[in-house]
UniProtKB/TrEMBL annotation:
Entry's family note: Belongs to the SELO family.
Protein name: Protein nucleotidyltransferase YdiU
Binding-site residues for ATP, renumbered to this chain: G104, G106, R107, K128, D140, G141, R191, R198, D277
Cofactor: Mg(2+); Mn(2+)
Active site feature: D267 (proton acceptor)
Source taxonomy: Bacteria, Pseudomonadati, Pseudomonadota, Betaproteobacteria, Burkholderiales
Residues annotated as binding Mg(2+): N268, D277
EC numbers, comma separated: 2.7.7.-, 2.7.7.108
Keywords annotated in UniProt: ATP-binding, Magnesium, Manganese, Metal-binding, Nucleotide-binding, Nucleotidyltransferase, Transferase
Superkingdom classification of source: Bacteria
Entry annotated with the keyword ATP-binding: yes
Taxonomic source organism: Glaciimonas soli
Length: 504
């Protein structure tokens, strides 16, 4: 299975015609109870908003062709490509900790899977917002422009940050309206992932008492995406252990970059350890470990500091669903036991990299804890702090004023900086080399909510230039891009009033 977050793109011939895109659908080979075959519902006069060049190249398509009528129709759902078997999958899940019963693809339609360039694997194409399905639960199956732009931009931004994620090929729009809190125009995002199977896909069959279907799904996922586990002594135990490890690592990667998902329900958790289903997400700005990015999350279940714990909880929910296959509670618990150690190990690795530390010492956790304590006390901007810390100099203290000035209590920062300086000196750290390494680890540009909001408001007035520009900036998050420096600045005061919720 290709890692779509990190696989390098090598030159390959691009397809000039969509008809040359060979589509199959391995998920459709499962029994009919796993999905409903249906066609997308057309949108009126669709048009292209933007396309990700690198995502298009991943499956051999030329981004320049996406504005054509054929491409827009295909990636809006107005025309079905040859070989496609459109379907909506059924699944269930726990939402905000409560069993929600049957859910399913309420506004997502899987077109099928296509080969990646140079035959490195296959990627599923899924239309989000292409109309109602049997799982829409009284909804219209549509996505609105604002949420579609947010998902499109963040999917590709996370890819550029090196974090495992689903991707977004393109986003199309229409002047057709749907009713939310107010009337809003519709849009469709074409999402890409090796698989969109979720933890909730397994919960569905477990809670419905259908062990044969549960085994069918598990065998399909293992054979297709985890073939190295097929010959394990207990393949289902090995499967749960590997998903647990990937989830622990993903949580550490989220924490290290300040990303908050907002809705970590089990139906939003990828069985491949990918970031999936972008809704009320956010990137940490003024550091507060208890920050809740989702305005709908009244209890703070999915606050930033809760994400690692919820990741663990969700793995236990998956373990419960797989218990009949694994065979015993003890074996299931054994498959889950390494979550906390894997999370701690990965986060420790990432924090050392973020601070430019090449060695590990027993008291490093004290340095990290003191740092985060100061950041919380003075509400220091998360992304700016780590980026500017990369410019820290051991001897030229004047150069350190940029990071120092982020703090109100500068005396406390100076005390911490002395600890940091002494720690760097223990490994003979060199300013120039450390700066290069830290700037390759700590992004300068992330998708702040206000940046997305500016792009959305322009798009609502038929100006899509900011969507295009913002994506191109976020595709190179570690580069200086001095001409775009304002996109890395502290958010304006009006951004404090922005709220995102489950409707986002």
């Amino acid at each position: 299975m290709p890692d779509i977050a990190t696989s390098p793109l090598e030159p390959a011939p691009l397809l000039n015609e969509l008809s040359a895109l060979s589509i199959s659908n391995s998920f459709a080979a499962l029994p009919p109870a796993f999905y409903t075959n249906l066609m997308p519902t057309s949108l009126t006069a669709p048009y292209l908003i933007d396309v990700s060049t690198s995502a298009a190249q991943l499956i051999g398509l030329d981004a320049a062709a996406f504005s054509s009528e054929d491409y827009v129709a295909a990636f809006t759902g107005n025309r079905v490509l040859p070989g496609s078997q459109p379907l909506a999958a059924v699944y269930s899940g726990h939402q905000f900790g409560q069993w929600a019963g049957q859910l399913g693809d309420g506004r997502a339609i899987l077109l099928g899977d296509v080969a990646t360039i140079n035959s490195t694997g296959r990627i599923e194409l899924q239309l989000k917002g292409a109309g109602a399905t049997p799982y829409s639960r009284m909804g219209d199956g549509r996505a609105v422009l604002r949420s579609s732009i947010r998902e499109y931009l963040c999917s590709e931004a996370m890819f550029a940050l090196g974090i495992p994620t689903s991707r977004a090929l393109c986003v199309t729009g229409s002047n057709q309206y749907v009713m939310r809190e107010t009337p809003e125009t519709t849009a469709v995002v074409t999402r890409m992932a090796p698989s969109f199977v979720r933890f909730g896909s397994f919960e569905h069959w477990f809670y419905n008492g259908q062990q044969d279907a549960l085994k069918t799904l598990a065998d399909y996922v293992i054979t297709t995406f985890y073939p190295e586990l097929e010959d394990a002594e207990n393949r289902y135990h090995a499967f749960l252990a590997e998903v647990t490890r990937r989830t622990a690592h993903l949580m550490a990667q989220w924490q290290a970059v300040g990303f908050m998902h907002g809705v970590m329900n089990t139906d939003n958790m990828s069985i491949l350890g990918l970031t999936l289903d972008y809704g009320p997400f956010g990137f940490m700005e003024a550091y507060d470990p208890r920050h809740i990015c989702n305005h709908s999350d009244n209890q703070g279940r999915y606050a930033y500091n809760m994400q690692p714990q919820i990741g663990h909880w969700n793995c236990y929910a998956l373990g419960q669903a797989l218990l009949p296959l694994i065979g015993s509670v003890e074996e299931t618990q054994d498959a889950l036991k390494d979550y906390q150690a894997e999370y701690a190990k990965k986060l420790d690795e990432l924090l050392h990299a973020k601070l430019g530390l090449q060695t590990y010492q027993t008291d490093d956790d004290k340095l990290f804890d003191a740092m985060f304590g100061l950041m919380q006390k003075d509400h220091v901007d998360f992304t700016l702090f780590f980026r500017q810390l990369g410019d820290f100099q051991l001897n030229d203290t004047a150069t350190n004023n940029a990071v120092r000035d982020l703090f109100i209590d500068r005396a406390s920062f100076d005390a911490w900086a002395n600890m940091y300086r002494a720690r760097l000196q223990t490994e003979n750290s060199q300013d120039t080399q450390r700066r290069l390494a830290m700037h390759a680890t700590n992004p300068k540009y992330v998708l702040r909510n206000y940046l997305a909001q500016v792009a959305i408001e322009k798009a609502q007035n038929k100006d899509y230039s900011e969507v295009h520009k913002l994506l191109r900036i976020l595709e190179k998050p570690f580069d200086e891009q001095p001409e775009h420096a304002q996109y890395a600045a502290l958010p304006p005061d009006w951004a404090n009033g922005l709220e995102v919720s489950c409707s986002s």
